[in-house]
Amino acid sequence: MFAIGFLIIGAIFIGCLLLASKLLPERWRHPFILGVVAVISTYPFLHLVRPSYKTFKELCQHQRPPTIIKTKAVDFILLEWGYSSDCTGGPAYIANSGYLGFDCRTNAVNKDAVALYRYTKKPDSDSNCGLECFDVEKILKPETSFGYFDHSSRTRAGYMVGDEKRVTIDYPAMRSEEHIPFWRWLRFEDYILVDATDGDMAFTTQYSYLPYGPLTILGLASGSAPTEQCPWPPKVDPRDVYKPKNTPAVERKP
Which of 41, 98, 104, 116 could pair with 79 as two cysteines, CB 3.0-4.6 Å apart? Predict the structure, then answer.
C-alpha cells in the first residue's frame, strides 16, 4: 500500500508539474522543471542539516538517567514485578539496604487467589538469606502506592522548543493543551512514576524525531509518519524513589 501511495503521488505531481510549466515561457520551462525536481529530491535529506536533528542525535547518544523529583521514606517497598510469582526475588531486591522488608502480590501463599503479602525480615537474619528468613502476613494495601495495581502511572507527550518541553497530551487524563506545529519535528514522551498520595515522584524520557514532519502517504501507510527513536530509556528504579526510613526524603525540581 505504501508503494501504491508513492505511485499515485508521483503521477499527480508529474501531471501538475507539466501543466504548471506550460504557463511559463518556453525558455523557462526546463529550468523550472529541473529546479522543482531538485528541491523535491533534496527534501528527504534536509533533516540531516537541521539543528533540531543534531539535538536529537545528541540526546540519543547521551541519554539522561531517570529524573527523581522527590523521594519518600518507607519501611517496606513494593515488589511490583512479583505478581503471580513466589516473590523469591524480594530478598535480593532489598539486600544490604535499610528496608524492614517488602510487599508483594502473589498466589504462592494461597494457590486459589492472588493477594498482597508483607514479608518482614527476621531479626539477625543473614543478608544473603531467602524467604525462609522472612515472616509473612496478608495485608490490604502496600506501603508504597505506585504502579499498575494502584493505577498511578501515567505518560505525557509533546514537542521540544529548545530545552523546553511543550506538553500536548497527558495520559490517562487525556489533557490536551495545543496542537503540535508541523515544523516541530523533535518530540518527547515522559513515563512517570506517580505515588497515589504524593503525586509525581520520578520520570524517564524517550525522544523521537519526525524527519518529514507528520506526513503519511495519502493515509495508505500504517497511519503514522516515518519516525526515528532514541533507544528505550532506563526505567525508574523504585528504590531510588522510596528510600529506607533511615534515609532522609528529598525534593528536586523536575
Answer: 104
Q: What angle do CA 78, 83, 85 make, to 5 degrees?
A: 110
Q: Which three cell numbers stand for residue 174?
A: 487525556
Q: Are 141 and 149 in contact (CB under 8 A)?
A: no
pTM as predicted: 0.74
Q: Contact at 8 Å (CB) between 77 and 242?
A: yes
User: Residue 152's closest CA among 188, 114, 105, 199?
Assistant: 199
Q: What is the CA radius of gyration of the chain?
A: 27
In what helix (H) or strand (E) does residue 119 lie, and over which residues does it extend?
strand 115-121
Quickly tell me which residue has 533540531 as its cell.
Answer: 52
Among 174-183, 215-224, 244-253, the least confident range: 215-224
